[in-house]
Specification:
Layout (H helix, E strand, L loop, with lengths): L8 H30 L6 H11 L3 H4 L1 H13 L1 H10 L1 H23 L5 H26 L4 E2 L2 E2 L9 H25 L2 H32 L1 H8 L3 H5 L1 H19 L4 H21 L2 E3 L3 E2 H4 L3 H28 L12
Antiparallel strand pairs: 1-2, 3-4
Helix pairs in contact: 1-4, 1-7, 1-8, 4-5, 6-7, 7-8, 8-9, 8-13, 9-10, 9-12, 12-13
Length: about 350
C-alpha cells in the first residue's frame, strides 16, 4: 500500500506528520514550560513543589514530539532543514541549551534540597528562555528567509527583527497562560486560586498578541493578505477568528466561574487555532516564501521507507502518552507527588 503512494501525496503525508508532532509539542510541552515561566510568581517552596509535581510524570515524554518534529524535518525535508538551520542557528542553539538547563534543574532540584535556590532559578530561567527562543524561531521563519539557488543567502542575525522579538514575547505569554490553566485544573488551594487570577491577565495578553500578529503579517507580507482577504476565501477563513473568540470566552468564563477543565481545554483550542491560522497563511511552504513541501522533500524511496517506521512507532507513542495522562489524571494536592 505504501509503495503505491504517489509522488504528490507522499510529501504532504510527511508534512502532516511533522505538523502534527509540532502541534502536540506546543500543547503538551507548552503547559510544563508555562509552569516554569510562572515559577517566580509563586515564591513559597510548598507551592513550587506542588506545581512541579503536576508535571513530573509528563515533562520528559512531552519533549518526544520536539525530537520527532525536528528529526522528521531533517530526514523527510533535508533541503528545508539545510536552509532553516543556518538561518536560525543562534536561537535554535539557545533553545536547546535552555531546555537542557531546565531538564537538569527539574531532576536536581529534589536532590539538592534544602539548597536548591539556583536550581529553581535554572528551571524558571530555562523555561522562559526556551519559550522565548521558540517564538523567535517562529517569527524568523514567518517573516521569510533569504534563499538563493536553494541555499540560505542571508546573514547570521537576519532573524533578529522587531517581529521575531514580538513573537518571542507572545509565546512566553501564551505558554504562561496554558501553564496557568493547567495549574487551575491540576492543583487546589492557593496555587489554584492564584493561577486563575493570573490566567485572566495572561489571556488578555495572548489575545492582544494574536491580534497584533493577525494585523502585522498581512500588512507586511502581501501574499498572506491576498490569501486571507480575497473572495471567496474570506468567507470561510473568517471561521478561524470567530472560533478564536469563542475559545477565548470559554477560557475567561472557566477561569472566572471556577470550571476545573474548561480553561485548559479552551487555552489549548486557542493555541491550535493560532497554529491553524499560521498554517493557512504559509501552506504549502516549509521555508516561506521560496521552498514548498515538494521541492524540499527527500527521495521518494527514503520517504516510503521511513513512513513504515512511523506507522509502527507513532501509535505506540500515542498510546503511551494517552495511558500516562490517564493514569496520572486528577488533582495533585499539597504534599502529594510522584518524584
Amino acid at each position: 500500500m505504501i509503495a503505491g503512494i504517489d509522488l504528490f501525496s507522499l510529501p504532504l503525508i510527511w508534512a502532516l506528520i511533522i505538523g502534527t508532532a509540532v502541534a502536540l509539542y506546543v500543547v503538551l510541552d507548552g503547559f510544563d514550560l508555562g509552569v516554569g515561566i510562572l515559577f517566580p510568581l509563586f515564591p513559597r517552596e510548598h507551592d513550587r513543589d506542588q506545581m512541579m509535581n503536576t508535571v513530573a510524570p509528563f515533562w520528559d515524554g512531552n519533549e518526544t514530539w520536539l525530537v520527532m518534529g525536528g528529526g522528521g524535518l531533517w530526514v523527510a525535508f533535508p533541503k528545508a532543514f539545510a536552509v532553516i538551520m543556518p538561518a536560525l542557528y543562534l536561537p535554535v542553539i539557545v533553545l536547546l541549551l535552555a531546555l537542557i538547563f531546565r531538564g537538569v534543574a527539574f531532576e536536581f532540584r529534589w536532590v539538592a534540597k534544602p539548597n536548591h535556590l539556583w536550581w529553581d532559578r535554572a528551571f524558571a530561567g530555562g523555561s522562559i528562555v526556551a519559550a522565548f527562543a521558540q517564538g523567535v524561531v517562529l517569527g524568523g521563519l514567518l517573516q521569510g528567509i533569504d534563499v538563493r539557488n536553494g541555499q540560505f543567502a542571508g546573514g547570521p542575525l537576519d532573524w533578529l527583527t522587531p517581529f521575531s522579538l514580538m513573537t518571542g514575547c507572545a509565546l512566553v505569554v501564551g505558554y504562561a497562560l496554558i501553564g496557568a490553566t493547567w495549574l487551575a485544573m491540576k492543583t487546589d488551594g492557593g496555587v489554584e486560586a492564584r493561577s486563575r487570577r493570573l490566567g485572566v491577565g495572561l489571556l488578555c495578553g495572548l489575545l492582544a498578541a494574536i491580534a497584533l500578529v493577525s494585523v502585522w503579517t498581512p500588512l507586511a507580507i502581501p501574499r498572506i493578505a491576498e490569501r486571507w482577504f480575497s473572495m471567496p476565501r474570506i468567507m470561510w477563513l473568517s471561521l478561524v477568528p470567530l472560533a478564536t473568540m469563542v475559545a477565548a470566552y470559554l477560557c475567561w468564563h472557566g477561569l472566572r466561574k471556577g470550571g476545573p477543565r474548561m480553561p485548559f481545554y479552551a487555552s489549548v483550542a486557542l493555541f491550535l487555532l493560532a497554529y491553524v491560522g499560521l498554517v493557512i497563511s504559509n501552506v504549502p511552504y516549509l521555508v516561506p516564501p521560496t521552498i514548498d513541501v515538494w521541492e524540499a522533500a527527500a527521495d521518494p524511496k527514503s520517504l516510503r521507507f521511513m513512513l513504515v517506521g512511523v506507522l509502527v512507532l507513532l501509535p505506540v507513542i500515542l498510546g503511551y502518552t494517552v495511558f500516562n495522562y490517564w493514569v496520572f489524571r486528577g488533582k495533585v494536592r499539597a504534599g502529594e507527588g510522584y518524584h
